UniProtKB/TrEMBL annotation:
The lineage of its organism: Bacteria, Pseudomonadati, Pseudomonadota, Gammaproteobacteria, Pasteurellales. GO terms for molecular function: glycogen phosphorylase activity; pyridoxal phosphate binding. The modification N6-(pyridoxal phosphate)lysine is found at K654. GO terms for cellular component: cytoplasm. It is an enzyme of class 2 (transferase). Its EC number is 2.4.1.1. The keyword Metal-binding does not apply. This is Alpha-1,4 glucan phosphorylase. NCBIfam families: P_ylase.
Amino acid sequence: MPTISNASFMTSVEQELNQYCQERFIAPEQLSNTQWFQFIAKCSQSTILQNFPTNPPLVNTRRVNYLSMEFLIGRLLGNNLMSLSVYQDVDNFVAKYGKNLVDILEEERDPSLGNGGLGRLAACYLDSMASLSQPAIGYGLHYQYGLFKQHFNESGEQLETGDSWNRDFYLQQYHRPDFQQKVGFGGTVAQITDDQYDWQPAWTIQGEAFDLPVVGYKGVQQPLRLWQGYSETSFDLAQFNDGQYLQAESHVIDAAKLTKVLYPNDNHQEGKALRLMQQYFHCACSIADLLRQHLAQGRTLMELPEFEVVQLNDTHPALAIPELMRILLDQHHLSWEQAWAISSKTFAYTNHTLLPEALEQWEDGLVAQLLPRHMLIIERIDRELLAKVRAEFNDEEFEQAWRETAILMDHRVRMANLCVVGSFAVNGVAQIHSELVVSDLFPSYARLFKGRFHNVTNGVTPRRWIRQANPPLARLLDNHIDGDWTKDLALLSQLENLVDDPHFQTAYQEIKQSNKQVLADVIEQEIGLKVNCNAIFDVQIKRFHEYKRQHLNLLNIIATYLDLKANPQKDFVPRLFIFAGKAAPGYFMAKQIIQAINGVAKVINNDPDMQGKLQVAFLPDYRVSLAEKIIPAADVSEQISLAGKEASGTGNMKLALNGAITLGTLDGANVEIAEFAGKENVVIFGHTVESVRQLREQGYVPRSYYEQDEQLRNAIDALANGMFSDGDTQRFSALVDNLLNSDYFCVLADFASYREAQQEIAERYKDQAAWSRSAMLNTARLGTFSSDRSIRDYQTRIWKK
Ligand code: CRA
């Protein structure tokens, strides 16, 4: 618990304000929002460091080293003030000077050190671990450029510019020169004994640590430690092996560039040498740092798994496994068996995807050149595995089992395989996904390593996604819930008794309506569109990916538009479709979909017949702070991925907790959301995992849907014939061609069922009382999707001693 009282915090704020103003020869009334922001950030940071305990004691749990290439933490100041329980006091304080805290907090630039769900999940987990006093440290990279900023040009295309977040990031990051590390690359290896080798790297890069304090809600403060690459000289390529892989990319290999940029891909691997170097650099710095701390406490290497666990956030930090082995073998001279006994009890791996293009594989030649010693270790792990597979599977089964389980296959190093073999626990991120990990991805491993596979359904922090994002709802909950729901989200179930209480209903409805008004203002400011606040706010916010099927949403919008044009008198519930999300700069099809949405939005929003009826708002530059504005205002949450493709989703949880009705397929965590909320409080449509399988087996022919469904045909034709591209019939031809001739994500097969589901939404919305009741029940019943629950699941299923 924080050891500072609100009164003493505010006294120190007052003193510091005097000093701050004196130094600048300025009166408090003249301070700009930016200056207020800098000033409050400074006060909160020093209070956090002085008064919040660090390093909570290890009680029945190990310390968690959360290794992730991405941490999408979002703005920190508001969250920190809340955790210190001084938000309201500071709000009152700045009001005395005619300022509004909400405006001041808007000055903070989001640190966008992640792409999407995986990075945001890491941030929610850090928050929960600090709030639950689970000893933990986050290890990531200190990218100079976070995820790009997104803009749209006149014709609706996505443009990208750099986000040098650090330049105007006022919150302090603590440079820790004492934690510096040296990381080697390339070079030669010489065998010393059976198990020990001497690796002489061709060059080294220095890793510098920057700490960002993560403050738990009324909890402890723990570091997010981010590594930055530093070298006084650039790589000497001549000294380095002149292998074909690196030569081809020599122009990008420069030490100073190592941690310059976050690779902007979500659920897609980019097989660049620089990315592999980033991954190893991240692992090497983090493993060295954790061993330093472990040994400094007088503990032995054999005790490592008793005190520390390394949670691998997907396979991006997989090289931590051979790196720990290397240190144990070559630096501490343990035998292979001893080293493996330690390492294989230290790592746990979370799988976040089944998509083949996201399952990382590296060319073995590249790994051998960059990391020759690690390659030898991986080869040995693979050999030992081979013996196990031979023992478990009979001759008939063997070939298939080895194809599936081998780490090295077809000149590739398969990182997911390395993780499964090298970890004591593997988990998926939602029930259905964890089942598919076992049944479709790793059935032979499940047989070989019984008890290794688990499920931990993702969760989201209620501090940011309810208390901070939706203050009016938070106040309502404070007033009606007995106990602190912020720390125990299961308490939301008390609302079940209130859903039929007319006062509560009205209050809940008014909150949604006022949040819609707030978002309407944001939309007008951002894109100049005046929206109808009585329309259904229908929201799809997430990365752009074909499997997420924003184009399914778009086809329904086009069909609806064409229908309204043909039947102007039709009884229609007004609808505002809201989109936000970025596409990876190199992902052509996703960018086409973005451009098509912008094209359709332009036509619909400028059509006088549609005013107040049908509108489309595409908000640029989706990021955490924008999500915080959209989510509380949503009526409908679009979760329409093809079944089996979205591992979990977490936006689905945030939206449902804030009272949006899920319109979704039976995919990822939607399945559990539907179970907890009750089938009558969600709208489910489309093919299931099983029926998609059958569809493919029969031979899926998308064009037959086009031919049979007139509305679908008209919608696709409208895209093709230039209606939404100023007459340009080529602009969307790749998208149209893809839908008609391959449509791997079965958009056309789900169109009719999606359209029906959309009509059901409209019907349900007409009965406002019933709609709100469903929304309230979503809030009441989804407390289980708190990331605190996920962390408790990790504690009991995986991190237990
Ligand atoms: N792209 C999944 O696709 C999931 C998050 C967090 C993802 C989401 O469905 O909610 O992880 N997978 O578990 C991923 O990044 C590498 O795989 C994601 O964010």
